[in-house]
Amino acid sequence: MTSRLRVTLSGMTLVGAAETTAWIGIPVSRIPGPLEPDEADLLGRARDGDREAAHRLGRLCAERDDRLGARHWWERAAQAGNVDSAYNLGLWHRMHGTTDEAVGWFEAAAATGDTDAATNLASLLLERRGDAAGARLWFERAAENGSRHAARRLALLCEDQGDGMGARRWHFRAALDGDLRSAHDLGFLGYTAGDEAEASHWWEYAARGGHAEAAYHLALLLHTARDEKGAEGFYRLAARADHPGAAFRLGDLALRRGDLRTALACFERAAHTGSQEASRMAGLVCLRLDDRLSAAHWFGRSAADDPEAAYRFGSLLVSEHNDLKGARHWFRRAAERGHQAAQAELRKVLPLTGGCVETEGCLLDPPPPYWTRPAEPEQAARAELAVAAARRRGDAAAEPAALVEILGTWDLVARESLSRGLPDVPTGGPVDGPVDGPVDGPVDGPVDGMVGGAVGGMVELLARTTGLHLAAIEHLGLVRATLLRPGTAPWPTPAEVEHVLGTARDLRSHFGLR
């Protein structure tokens, strides 16, 4: 392919110019000014049929914003066989002409092996005509000729068409050629298929190249394996690029170590990017540092949408300012989202502020309980990875908090069942048979009660004990298994998660758990 100088025009790249010019509005003719000696020579040669001179003259017209002049001379040059002019005409017509004309000129240039023209042609066919087969053909030609951009676009098209092998092949080609986005995507393809070694390999490859999202997702993956030291290193790598999730996770690690000052700095950093959860955690750390003024500031920033922060903010208004009316407002906001402690406080302050319990809908008909238990780091990491995997191509996905509630509920109910000495409860990972009799002492860590087959022992036991539908409990267990063991089933949809959350809340209600 001919070596080119390029000029970007309204997001397009034209061949043959060395500076940037914006083409805005409808093409209009322009009376040329006096010609420089070189221009006069170019004009004479172009009129005599010199295609290179015609191409360069088109470039000069483009730099002067003479769109019609540029088109005229590029057509002369392209018809004489100048590939760069054909490419530029494809871009010209894409912006100012018709799709058919743009396709025609791109085809003329692409037929000579021009990878830029082939990539633009494929994009045009896909975006304006919906011709996926034609687009794939030209993307493949460009990718085979070494276009990294075409290889990535082809990989994404293969994903859309359900061609997993093709997607991996072309992402691999683009990644080896330095496209860190495709390396990141290969990590997700591996994770979704249950191949965590592949996910780790590609995320590390991209992370070490400077891809912050890859560093963050690798840290989450390491966190699922309880490698906190390794996870912290990649969280720090992502945090250097101001990744808000990384700052939050670093704060959580510091908090678990008891390093309150570092935790607060990390949570504040994440909160300044808009994270409500980070604002709430910053408030909680301030409380532990006995800095109630700062705690109120951080709770207030997230109270409108975070039930726990609203509850904490209301509590501070009572304890620090005796502001019962203000507290009632925030207790009500939290109670309306199912925060049970806020519901209890609202019952207390209503009579003191002239209110009446009988007029509060959130107390007469309480909403589903809000999950207030701290998330286990491994569960939070699994939930985030599942959501990120589902949303990577724009698909709808539940919020991580909903998935954490599903995971946490199962473990909570399983522990409760064990502590009560209920029979036939499988425990501690994949098992072949039930555990008879009670278990002495507390049960720590996640309890894995899913067993292969139609119904696991835990599912059957819970259905028998609670009276809930066996299929509903089994569905809860299957969603949990998908989150913990990627590749066993498609990621749950938001509607599926909402349905399963109902079962989780019914189970907790039966055992009297919040």
TrEMBL record:
Membrane-spanning regions, if any?
Answer: none
Q: Which SMART domains match?
A: SEL1
Q: What InterPro entries does this protein's entry cite?
A: Sel1-like, Sel1_AlgK, TPR-like_helical_dom_sf
Signal peptide residue numbers: none
Tell me which domain of life the UniProt entry assigns to the organism this sequence originates from.
Bacteria
Q: What is this protein called?
A: Sel1 repeat family protein
Give the lineage. Bacteria, Bacillati, Actinomycetota, Actinomycetes, Streptosporangiales
